[in-house]
User: Fold this.
Amino acid sequence: MTEKTVHSSETDELRAHQELSMDSIQTETFSRYTGPYIAGRVAARHRTAFDVITENRKFRVKTSGALLKIGKIPAVGDFVVILNQPETGTRMIVDILPRRSILTRGAAGEGNTEQVIAANLDIVFIVTAAGSDFNPRRLERYLTIVHASGAKPVIVINKSDLAEDAEKIAAEAVKIAGKVPVVTISALKKNGLEELENYLMPEKTVALVGSSGVGKSTIINALLSEEVQDTFDTRKYDEKGRHTTTVRQLFTLPGGAVIIDNPGVREIQIGSAAAGIDETFPEIAEFAPECRYRNCRHTDEPGCAVIEAVNAGFIPKERLESYHRLMKESEFQAEKEEIGLKRIEKKKYKWIGKAAKRIHEDKERCR
Ligand SMILES: Nc1nc2c(ncn2[C@@H]2O[C@H](COP(=O)(O)OP(=O)(O)OP(=O)(O)O)[C@@H](O)[C@H]2O)c(=O)[nH]1
Ligand SMILES: [Mg+2]
Ligand SMILES: [Zn+2]
Assistant:
């Protein structure tokens, strides 16, 4: 049988800067597979197929029905196992190796499913631009989802060349950053890139997130010293991005780090990332143990140490307000998810009930 009949539509040569870098943990997990299997990493996701980079090729493949049935959908950054049997025309993803982190956000609009941004990240650059994009409240949202993901956030303030007061903006970011590093750069002028390189260690995976037009793809091009990603001139219009990057893409930097470019998003929902909220508001977490009630919500409870700290000027009022907003949002999301699950359960029982009735009727008829 020829290569053409294989179910993966493309057998590309690897795109520049997309060689596979498996980390040692994944290599070990994969070594349990013997037979016609190959390991790879998901470099891009298309509507129904995935680009997977393997040791020396890139394949466009689908996932097995069995994997879909159990609701396992590969994400960019996932290490996957491909069943590769060219002789029978089979080439598909049959397993996803355990993830060490997963970055998700709440879906915009009505749906109540979380959207996976990427998997197996070590560090996430939360990119903002000095100028009108800068917004501490939005940064808090990003910090929440990154803290909840298991990866470490770094706040990157890009376009320092455009702002006279880049220092002042950085100071604003530091105020809400807690222990999270804040780096100021200009990707266009290639200023401060060496500070980013501190985080781009071999075998580490870094993803860039942030609004459209803040310069994520420009940063990738600057780090690769090559125009691998399209960028779009925001200045010609209104400083707002044009959603230039539409597909998540993974690249390997010369030093061995893997970097993932993401499409910019208009608004960032935190989903049910409650786990990340405490870490995003360390000053609130610090006073909370002093509250009279253990499950104090810091709204109007007597003996609330957090409210006292706000009144005494230790915690800015906006921070507590933002905390409340995010808590409410994550609780709402959790509730929605629970209702969704219950509905599915209900449907399932209804179906089982119907099936049982049918069997019973069949039996009656056979008598
Ligand atoms: N002045 C200045 N412009 C920059 C800098 N970095 C990026 N830009 C410009 O900002 C515009 C948008 O950059 P992109 O890299 O396309 O932004 P993006 O974040 O990838 O946007 P999406 O793909 O839409 O999410 C381009 O015109 C870049 O040249 C910078 O440091 N300084
Ligand atoms: Mg882009
Ligand atoms: Zn309290």
